[in-house]
Structures are given as structure tokens and as C-alpha cells.
Request: fold
Amino acid sequence: MTSMLEFISSHRTLIETRTRELCNARSVHKPSGKDTSEGIPILFDQLLDTLRRGDRESEIEIERVAGNYGGLLFTHDFTVGELVSAYGTVCEAVTTLGEELNAKFSNREFEMLNRVLDVAIAAAVTEYQRQGTDAHAHRELEHLGSLAHELRNALAGALMTFGVIRKGVVGPSGRTGDALERSLRRMGDLIDRALAEVRFRKDAVPIVEPLRLADVFDQIATMVASDVEARQQSLDFDVDHDLEVATDRQMLTSALSNLVQNGLRYTRKGGHVHVRAEKRDGHLAIEVEDECGGLPRGMTDKLFAPFARGTAHGPGMGLGLSIAVRASRTLGGDVHVDNEPGKGCRFTIDLPTVPTATTP
Reply:
């Protein structure tokens, strides 16, 4: 009968190598050049310590180290499945190598090995999930904070201009009235986006109805008219007035309006935004071309993530493009961008003529 403690101590390098090979062979996901085997030496230290003790006194230490390991994997974007697999391969490596070298282990030692791995897996997964929950809560808090901040700014502007009008200093039809209207529209836009966020998080199924695309364009033109005028910009819509599509009106409007507002926001004062739509090979393509000057280097890949903004000090919460993507994907399509440095961007909503619900 071979002692598992002696076997692992004598063949530790070989067992660690075997474990590492198994981990890397099964892990498709290797972010930042790292692999799931980087914590294996630490786990073997704890395994040997537990086998030497032969009791449960080291479980707290195993939990502590395994918790750190789970947290480390989380920061490198590993999945729970990959984390659990990294531990499971330790047992497999010890067992298979023992068979190859004709080593015989007692049932008690097998129980000890499995107990150590169980404790390590539970601790690592618990820490992994805790950090994931904390990160999600932080993002939610940041989202709510940004929304409240922008609503407060819009409300302050509306109250200030309303106060001036109420005193009779100016009339509601002049520039002060226009400023009040812009503040109220901004508040309405923020509330609409918040409602869109709620709807997409509830796995909404598209409500399909036939609609004329020109009607959607007219609605959006009315929504942004005051912003276009305030920035002295021009906004053109190019669409066949007879072009119809079967889709969810609210989701399509949400996707397109966010792209149009994004284009206006980043286009220079006096600049131009052009929207066009046409059917291509059974798909509907809607393009929004702006004059933002192009994207910074490396921005294209992360542009559609929540809170991403085209410039470091750009206006808004950085939610418009992510909402546009989720709305489009819920309709079975997607959004992509073509960057023209020095000129601007062309965002394209690509939709099937009949939407199919997908995961946003």
C-alpha cells in the first residue's frame, strides 16, 4: 500500500504538470495569456498539508487560499465551470498517475483527497459568486447614480427657465421657452431610456406589427427637432415612403432614436447627420451617418458596452448605444459601426424583415 502523501510529495512536479495539461486542454477561454492552472501549486501545498495533519484543522486555511484563488480567476474573467474544472483535474491527475505507476491508496486517503477538493471548490466558487454579485451591484448603483444626476441637471435647468418665465421677464415663446422645452425633452428622453432598460431586462418578446418606416422617421425627427435647432445642425432622412416592415414599433424607435441622438450629440455644431434605410437581400438596413470626427484608437470594440462614451468627457451616461444594440438584438438583428477617422461614423441597424427574439 502506497501512502498518498509520499506519492504526491515524490511526484509533485509530474502531477502538477499533468494537472496543468488537463486544465489547459479543456479550457477554451484564456484571457490575458493566463490559464486556470496558475493556482495549482497553492492547492497542492494545501493538499499536502491536510494529508500530513490527517484531520480537519487545515480546512479554514484551505478555504482562505481557495477563496483568494476564486477571486483571482474572477478578475481574469474565468467562468465558474472553468474554475471547478481546475480543481477537478487535480483529483483526476493524482488518480490516473497513481494507476500508471501502480500506486495503491487507502480508502481513507481517497476520502481525504475528495474532502480537500470539495472544501476548495466550495470556497472558490463562493468567493467567485460574491465578487460577481458585488460587481453587478456596483454597476447598478453607478447606473442609478448617473441617471439621477442627469435628471437633476435637466430638472434644475427646467426650474430655472420656468422661474424666469413666471416672473414675466420673458415670454414662453422666446429662447428661454426653448431652453425649458429642451430640459423637459431631456427628462423625457432619460425616462424613456430607463423604461427601455427595464423592458429589455424582463426578456421582452417583440410585439410585431406592420408599420411604415417613414412614420417612425417622422416621429424621431419631431423628438430631436429642438436639439437640431439648438446646435444649428441639419438632420436628413432618406427613405422610400412606401417601405414597410413588420417589427416592434417601440423597440425599433428606441434603437434608431438612440443612434440619431448619439450622432447629433457628437457631431460638431453646424454639422450634418444623415439617416437612410433600404432593404438588402431580405434584410432591413438603417444607417445613421454622423460627423463626429471618428473614434479614438481602440474605441470601436468597446463602444457598445454600457457607460462607454466616444470621448473621455463626452455628454450623457453612455447608455444609448448599448440600448440600441439590445433593442436590435431583441428583434433578431444587430448594430455595427464603420469608423472613418477625421470624418465620422456610420452606424447600421441590420434587421430581418420579420423579427425573431434573441437574447440581448
